[in-house]
Every structure is written in C-alpha cells, then in structure tokens.
Give the backbone structure.
Amino acid sequence: MTENPAKQKSSARKVALAYSGGLDTSIIIPWLKENYGCEVVAMIGDVGQQEDLEAARKKALATGASSVFVEDLREEFVTQYIWPTLRAGAVYEHTYLLGTSMARPVLAKRQVEVARRTGADALAHGCTGKGNDQVRFELAFKALAPDLKIIAPWREWSINSREDALDYARAHGVPVEQSLKNIYSRDRNLWHLSHEGGPLEDPANEPEEAMWQWITAPSRAPDSAAEVEIAFEEGTPVSVGGKRLAGADLIDQLNSLAAAHGIGRADIVENRLVGMKSRGAYETPGGTLLVHAHRELEALCLDRETAHFSALLAHRYAEMVYYGLWFTELRESLDAFFRRAQQRVTGSVRLKLHKGNLTVVSRHSPLSLYQKDLASFSMGRYNPQFAEGFINLFALPVTLPAPAAKSASGDKK
C-alpha cells in the first residue's frame, strides 16, 4: 500500500491532519509517516458528534501522531455557521439541511489555526476522491492558508474501497469499528447524522431500520403528541418553551424532543458537486423543527417582495454551502442581505410533534404584517371597488394581444 516514499519524503515536514478516529483518518496517520516520513499533528474538532474524543486522542497518539489537539467548536459551529445558514433559509435540493456541509468549514478553519500554531507546512484530510468534502476542506485551505501544501491520501494511495482500507488497518495494527458487516459511512454533529454506503448505494433499497441510530421510528414514537414553542430574534433562535438557551444547548434540547417523536428522517438522492448522483440518509431532528418554525415565522413577518427574493437567494446560499464556498466574498455579502432582511423575523412558533408528523399550532410576532381586518372576509377598511382597476391594469399583458390574435385569425379565413 506504500506509494514510493523516497520520492515524496522531503515534500512535507509536519502535517496537520483533520482527525476523527474513523476508518479513513485512522489509517492516514501511519500512511503519512510511511510515505512522507513526516511528523503528524492531529486536530480533533468537537462539533457535537457525541463520541469519546479522549479515546480518539489516545488512539491518534498510539498510531503515530506526535501531538493531538482536541478543539471545542460547538458554540462557534452554531453561531457562526448554523445560524447564518438557518437565517438564509438554505436547504439543498429542497431536502438536505446541510449538516455535513456546514461543519467542514469550521473544522478546516481550526485545522489551519492548529497548523499555524504548531509550525506545520502541510494540511491533510481523509476525504475520498469522489465526494464533496474534499472540495469543502480544500477550498477552505486555499482561502485561509494558500501557502500550505495539501495532502489528500485518497487521491494518492492504492486503497480503492472500504475493504482495502480495512485490510490496511489490520496490517498496521490500527483498531477500527467498521467491518464488512457494518460498512456505512457516517458523519455526526450537533445538527445531524448522515449515512452513506452499503445497501444505500442501490436507490431501490429501502433503508434498513437498523441503520437509523438517532431518531425513533415514527410507528414506535409516543402515542401522545408533544408541543414546543421556539422563539426567534431577527431570525436567530433564542429560546425553547420560554427559556433562553445558548445555541448548542438549544439544539440539543430540540434534538432530544424531535428524535423521540420520530421527526427528522430523510432519504434522498442528491446531485454531488463533483458530478455524480449519490444517495444518502439523514437524521436531523432539532434542525427540522428549527427550519420549519423559521419558515413559518418568515411567512408572518416578511413582505411579499422580500420573502420571494429571499427564497431566490436561499437557493444560491444552499448551493454555496454545499459546494464548499463558505470563505468567499459572495457568501459574506449574502449574509449582509439576510441580516437586514431578517430584522423583522422576531416572534415565536408553536409546533406539534406526533409520530413523525410536524404541524404548526400557532405563530406570534410583535412585527407581524398579518392584519386580521384586511385578511378576514369582512370588508372592513378594504375597498373592493379598487380591485377592478387593479385587475384591468394587471390584465393588460394578456388583454392587449387578444384583438391582434383575433384579426390574424380572420385574415386566414
């Protein structure tokens, strides 16, 4: 499995590796040492994956890392990445709530900071050569540290499959959880849990119930419904059930509630940036509640033109996050638009959760544009006679061509 170490040995002295302790990054440490003859510094970013990070730290050291940095990124992840994406209403291809996509730039940013702190001259990641994550990491690297060398083992080594990777791990004494019987590739953080590979690679296969690890099957969820009220200030979630919470705590609380009631499973075929379609299953419990509640509050607070234009930009924002274009002028400019557009999105939404179903119970806002006397069937201060002139003007584009069309029809006779 080595790739001509003599040729590459001098090209990197110290490498900062984004390390998770999973199959790919576990074998990268010995591979880097074997093929580059370099020192390896591991960076473990805590984005709420709920794994034993101390065990991962010890494992990285045991498999050859010279030092390991465990970085708590949870609150930064929420406030600087999740909340801006939520305020933008960004959802990729109508369904994917961008859990992995949002986490990559915060991890890459801290990896660069660790590289600078330790004097590393190269950056490495464990993303495959067929996925989106290689683009997300490397675009962040190029934006934040264009002078550092980038090493992508999956584009260099002769390992071509999970089976090959497992063989390499066994040959080098690297313990891993994956096996040929449990071949799913998973990514978890505060926002979601994703599943790829294995039986999911055939879109005709229904996801195995045993694959889902977080959200209760709707059929097994409690028979009684639950209600939750989420409050926002200028588009940012601030409280649950009237209690103000820090970002990570707020998401954790909503995750527990939604997961227990079967809310937030998704099974989609999506268009990868690199060109092919892929199939993934996602569990996004609290995020599903937040996206739904935010959308409902926007409907109450935004004027029509701002709402419709925001929807257009939300589509572009979602693409940019998915494509790894976080550290760009355009993404930051879109943030400026949404910060202004969301100033009215203040209020609360109450949701009902029942066996996988999510419905709106109520919407309230001190800045609501909904006026009952205008919306009701009673005419009130609305003058219906104004509608005739409005309709006549609005109909001009479809009315004016009519005589010409009639005349043309007569000429043919």
Q: What stands out?
A: DSSP finds 15 helices and 14 strands in the chain. The chain has two domains: 12-175, 188-364. The first strand starts at residue 14 and ends at 18. The longest helix spans residues 99-118.
